[in-house]
UniProtKB/TrEMBL annotation:
Its cofactor is [4Fe-4S] cluster. Keywords: 4Fe-4S, Iron, Iron-sulfur, Metal-binding, S-adenosyl-L-methionine. GO terms for cellular component: cytoplasm. The keyword Transferase does not apply. InterPro entries: ELP3, Elp3/MiaA/NifB-like_rSAM, Radical_SAM_C, rSAM, rSAM_horseshoe, rSAM_sf. GO terms for molecular function: 4 iron, 4 sulfur cluster binding; catalytic activity; metal ion binding. SUPFAM superfamilies: Radical SAM enzymes (SSF102114). The keyword Iron applies. It comes from Fervidobacterium islandicum. This is Radical SAM protein. GO terms for biological process: tRNA wobble base 5-methoxycarbonylmethyl-2-thiouridinylation. Residues 9-230 form the Radical SAM core domain.
Length: 324
């Protein structure tokens, strides 16, 4: 399936249920979940009531905590509400085993969003994730043939490098994972990472650094027929006051997509970009309109074409040339 065709697929309507820190057995160095979600621990009876009345949704998503870190009876209680609606859950690699997989399969779980963050053991240790790259691969092997797996990655964690980020992507692609969410590390107030930042022991990525590395990760993933379904954090306006440092921008995803286009233009000396209107922000946004290329908006085809070559083909060519 071509890149543009994939992008046209209708996104599922997901009803989100936030379970901040529920099921989490450790506190990661960067985490203040109640700040990030703006939520307090929900009443389970209220959750059940709200789900019973749902109409016109494709999935119910349990976010914010470590779903498979919950006691099995609580997992089943949450999943058993509206068994007719497929579920998606977010969790960690170290709380996936055969028994958990059986529960998820029994109760119509369709998608598992796996908080990988990195495959590198040093990065995982210094971020206090409390699992290893081997644990990630073991979890994926249990999940990949039974569920849609979305790998969540972070850049700019303690001890992280560009090479480690790209290697994490390469390893995950080789497991067969094709869907990704990626965001740079943001320093939130009242976290251990904020303490290190204030002590000068942690330096967050600049916005430009974060955009560059995520653009390369997008090229590597989508050049190998994967898809990045989310770039950057969504932080509600009311929660922005809790951001202490880091490369946050409300339009981070568009910035990365624009950088991908620019990198392809510069790598291959592109002279003309033809594009359909809905891709204007990618093609001409964030300084791209000043590139020395001809821009041609088209209506007879949907997509982006660089010197006549489909965007997906250019991604593939670029991904094959990335060195790290």
């Amino acid at each position: 399936m071509d890149f543009q065709q994939k992008d046209l697929e209708r996104r599922p309507k997901i009803y989100p249920v936030f379970l901040p820190n529920l099921g989490c057995r450790t506190r990661c160095i960067y985490c203040n979940q109640s700040i990030m979600t703006g939520e307090t621990l929900p009443d389970l009876k209220e959750i059940a009531q709200s789900l019973q009345n749902l109409t016109d949704v494709d999935e119910i998503g349990y976010y914010g905590g470590t779903f498979t870190g919950l006691k099995p009876e609580l997992m089943e209680k949450l999943l058993s509400v509206r068994p007719d609606i497929p579920k998606r859950i977010s969790t960690r690699p170290d709380v996936i085993d055969e028994h958990v997989v059986e529960i998820l399969k029994r109760w119509n779980v369709k998608t598992v969003e796996l908080g990988v963050e990195s495959i590198d053991d040093e990065v995982l240790k210094n971020s206090k994730r409390n699992y290893t790259g081997a644990d990630v691969l073991r979890a994926i092997s249990l999940l990949k043939d039974r569920f849609e797996v979305v790998a969540h990655l972070m850049t700019g964690l303690p001890s992280d490098t560009r090479a480690k980020d790209l290697e994490s992507v390469r390893i995950l692609i080789n497991t067969g994972v094709s869907l990704f969410r990626i965001h740079p590390t943001i320093v939130f107030k009242d976290t251990e990472l904020e303490v290190l930042f204030k002590q000068g022991l942690y330096k967050p990525q600049t916005l430009d650094e974060a955009v560059n590395i995520l653009a390369e990760m997008v090229i590597l993933i989508e050049g190998h027929n994967g898809k990045v379904i989310r770039l950057g954090y969504h932080i509600p306006q009311s929660q922005l006051k809790y951001v202490a440092a880091g490369p946050y921008h409300p339009s981070f995803g568009d910035m990365v997509r624009s950088r991908v286009v620019r990198m392809i233009v510069e790598r291959f000396g592109v002279k003309e970009i033809a594009y359909s209107r809905r891709f204007t922000s990618w093609v001409k946004g964030y300084g791209n309109d000043k590139m020395s290329v001809s821009f041609l908006e088209i209506s007879d085809e949907d997509g982006i074409f660089l010197d006549g070559t489909p965007f997906s083909d250019m991604l593939r060519r670029y991904s094959e040339s990335i060195k790290y």
